[in-house]
Amino acid sequence: MARTKNIVLERRAVVARILAGRGDALVVTGLGSTTWDTAAAGDTTKNLYLWGGMGAAAMCGLGLALAQPGRRVLVVTGDGEMLMGLGSLASIAVQKPANLAVCVIDNERYGETGMQRTATSFGVDLPGMARAAGFAETAMVRTEKQLAAIAPRLFAAAGPLFVAIKVTANPVPMVLPPRDGPWILRRFRHDLLGPRAAD
Amino acid sequence: MPSATSARRYTVAGKRAAAKISPPPAWADAIFDVLKEADIEQVGYVPDAGHTRLIDLCLADNAIRAILLTTEEEGVALLLGAWAGGQRGCLLMQSSGVGNCINMLSLAQECRYPFLMLVTMRGDWGEFNPWQVPMGQSTQTALESAGVIVQNVDDAKDVAETVHAAAALAFGSYRPVAVLIGQRIIGFKDWRKK
Fewer beta carbons within 10 Å, N or C terminal of chain B? Predict the structure, then answer.
């Protein structure tokens, strides 16, 4: 099967566009390119960057969303990272967190390892899987117009939401956020919990 | 330390009818009391026969979110998110699930968050199914090689105290700690019943 044609959106612009409307939302990133994309859009204490644990991002978002039901939680991850944690679509759908959205930046490639094709390049439909699992709302985004329509819903619509956004595989500059795990986590907790973070 | 024989509260306050909760062992009830005392609010689980009673107690408690997982490694990521958001959690699994967690346990070692695993053993004591033996016999080594502190318990009367101490260590020192609950406590499966 041929790779999906007519991909026009660029990943950095897509992530910047989405995060511009985040308000006080908490963001979890999946290892690799989406961590760099999120850092490029502006480092903040409300970002929980993952640099490892491939397949962890969506479940990390679930634990956070359940612990903070009054806050919006957005997971920004890649197609390869999401494919490694497909079971989490079922686990999230069972819990039905209304405040959680998962956004897959889908370049149909394993970007950190040599741009090998992922299953989505052969037609595997991630939003279709999320829909079948029972997510409240799912979408596949290919155009600026569709992006403009879905971006505010990531922070407002009743979740769980799952959105995959097809982006080009064009190279982008490396932008690295902090990489020390304890520091990233404790900075995030201190901002969110205040003095209780030291418990 | 809570008593293993203290009066059950879930029969009144629980979300589900008491009749749906599987019968004791008392050690499972004692673990539940320890989890409540430790302010555990998220319990991730992949079912195991040895954890049946404890899972039911967690599902029936209004202050605990029991989260069904498709594979145990999901729980390592779940509890990172939970702790990032200010909640304590623990993960229930069978020893075979430990093998599913290995790479994901790098999160617990690198990020230094409290991570409590309660593992019921197979392939350990009186095992009939040879397919359970490889993972059962490598459970402790695998956990220790992944940076998890392992504490064993093989007598039912020691279960509550061991879990209490493991929770204190995990949440006091922000480290991954696993309690291996021996198959001798759980009792081995009687295959003749089938």
Answer: C
B71 neighbourhood in chain A, CB within 8 Å:
87
In a domain, B38, yes or no: yes
Q: Report the number of distinct structural domains present in chain B.
A: 1
Rg of the Cα trace of chain B? 16
Q: What is the pLDDT of residues B1-32, one digit of tens each?
A: 444 434 344 443 344 444 467 778 899 999 99
Superfamily grouping for domain A11-198: Thiamin diphosphate (ThDP)-binding fold, Pyr/PP domains (3.40.50.970)
Burial of B130 (0-12, 13-18, 19+ CB in 10 A): exposed
Residue B50 resides in a domain: yes
Asked if A154 and A74 touch (Cβ cutoff 8 Å), the reply is yes
DSSP codes of every residue in A56-89 = -HHHHHHHHHHH-TTS-EEEEEEHHHHHHTTHHH
Taking contacts as CB-CB distances below 8 angstroms, the residues of chain B near A48 are 81, 84
B157's CB contacts (< 8 A; 6+ apart) are none
Judge whether B8 lies within some domain.
no
B168 is a domain residue: yes
In chain A, which stretches have pLDDT less than 70?
Answer: 1-4
- Residues A146-157 have pLDDT tens digits of 999 999 999 999
In B, which residues are within 8 Å of A102 by CB distance? none
B63 touches chain A (CB under 8 A): no
**How does pLDDT run across A1-16, given as a tens digit for each residue?**
445 678 999 999 999 9
Nearest-Cα distance to chain B for A8, in Å, is 33
- Which residues form the domain of B158? 27-187
Read off the CATH number of the domain in which B40 is found. 3.40.50.970
Conformational region of residue B39, where left means phi above 0, alpha means psi within -120 to 50, and beta covers everything else: left
Give B22's DSSP letter: P
The reply to whether B68 touches chain A by the CB within 8 Å rule is yes
